[in-house]
Amino acid sequence: MSIALFPGSFDPLTNGHLDIIRRASKMFDKVVVGVGSNTSKTALFTPEEKIGLISVTVADLPNVEVAIMHGLTVQFMAEIGAKFIVRGLRNSKDFEYERDIAGVNSALADVETILLLAKPENQNISSSMVKEIGSMGADNMVKFVPRVVVDALKERLN
């Protein structure tokens, strides 16, 4: 069975993240969305809230699970039996970052990183940008995040 991990902070889940999850679910027997913490940022949602939002959004994908990730990515991968890491690339800056992380992960464990290019409509979306736009009360956020996330952002930011 091929198991892939899609790790991230998902604060919040964007349409770009969702696209990567959907595409990965067609490539692997099982995809685990690993909700981790980004220690360099202040989170808007708790890990449990993120899991709830993501779970509702991927409910139509039977081979996708959502879990809180602790410790190193490769340690979590060993716990769930994953051999593949899935990451999305929006631009060349993302590529350089992901290339370096992939090198470290492969030096630590026998894992492969699969990089999926963001679709053009998602190349400019980031969770940080979504939070900024949401805090300014922008309408039409469904261009950037799933409806359940729009509702959660409105509730949290207003």
Protein described:
The protein has 158 residues and is of the alpha/beta class. The chain has a single domain, classed as 3-Layer(aba) Sandwich (Rossmann fold), CATH 3.40.50.620. The protein is built from 6 helices and 5 strands, in the order βαβαβαβαβαα. It has helices at residues 15-27, 47-57, 73-80, 92-108, 127-135, 147-157; strands spanning 3-8, 30-35, 64-68, 84-89, 112-117. A 5-stranded parallel β-sheet has the order 3-2-1-4-5, sandwiched between helices. The longest helix is centred in the middle third of the chain and has 17 residues, at 92-108. 33% of the residues are buried.
Q: What structural class is derived from the secondary structure elements?
A: alpha/beta
State the CATH topology.
Rossmann fold
Unreliable spans are none
Beta strands, count: 5
Q: Give the termini separation.
A: 44 Å
CATH homologous superfamily title: HUPs
CATH architecture: 3-Layer(aba) Sandwich
Percent of residues in helices: 40-55%
Number of helices: 6
Mean pLDDT rating: 94
Q: In the CATH hierarchy, what is the class?
A: Alpha Beta
Portion in strands: 15-25%
Strand order of the largest sheet: 3-2-1-4-5
> What series of H and E elements makes up the topology?
EHEHEHEHEHH
Biggest β-sheet strands, sense, barrel = 5 strands, parallel
What's the domain count?
1
**What is the CA-based Rg, rounded?**
15 Å
Overall outline: globular
